[in-house]
């Protein structure tokens, strides 16, 4: 007795003659690798922020400003930001491919996801690398207490 398996619902099929980069395979590999790296980055972030020193009581503007002034923590946070946003965007792209029924809908949704990911990555990276807790020329009454009035 033989039985056949129906073709999957996905409108995308990979023919054996097609050559080039298999983006779905690399997306799948990225999701696994970035997931493992994100677990390490997130738990490291939580451990440093919540367990070391005074714990939650130490979390304030000065603590964040001090961390963002350190190139190590800037790199850590940017890596976490980029990996998380691309990981989430790739997951959403996969959902759109699985559930959007028309080519137009799929294109609009995937373009929206791409735009959101790019905008958030650019804005987040700018905030991390350009953050200044004590900007020059600011009124002294608006500066945090740890800033020296110039």
Automatic annotation (TrEMBL):
Keywords, in A-Z order: Heme, Iron, Membrane, Metal-binding, Transmembrane, Transmembrane helix
Keyword Lipid metabolism: no
Residues spanning the membrane: 29-52, 72-92, 113-131
Subcellular location(s) per record: Membrane
GO CC terms, sorted: membrane
A molecular function GO annotation: metal ion binding
Domain of life: Bacteria
Keyword Metal-binding: yes
Main location (coarse class): membrane
Name this protein carries in UniProt: Succinate dehydrogenase
Species: Cryobacterium algoritolerans
């Amino acid at each position: 007795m033989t039985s056949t398996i129906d073709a999957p619902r996905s409108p995308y099929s990979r023919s054996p003659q097609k050559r080039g980069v298999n983006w779905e395979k690399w997306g799948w590999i990225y999701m696994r690798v970035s997931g493992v790296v994100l677990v390490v980055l997130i738990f490291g972030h939580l451990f440093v922020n919540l367990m070391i020193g005074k714990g939650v009581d130490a979390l304030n503007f000065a603590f964040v400003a001090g961390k963002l002034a350190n190139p190590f923590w800037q790199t850590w946070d940017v890596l976490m930001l980029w990996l998380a946003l691309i990981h989430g965007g790739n997951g959403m792209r996969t959902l759109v491919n699985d559930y959007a029924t028309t080519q137009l809908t799929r294109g609009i949704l995937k373009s929206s996801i791409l735009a959101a990911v790019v905008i958030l990555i650019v804005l987040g990276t700018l905030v991390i690398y350009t953050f200044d807790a004590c900007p020059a020329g600011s009124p002294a009454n608006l500066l945090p207490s740890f800033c020296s009035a110039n």
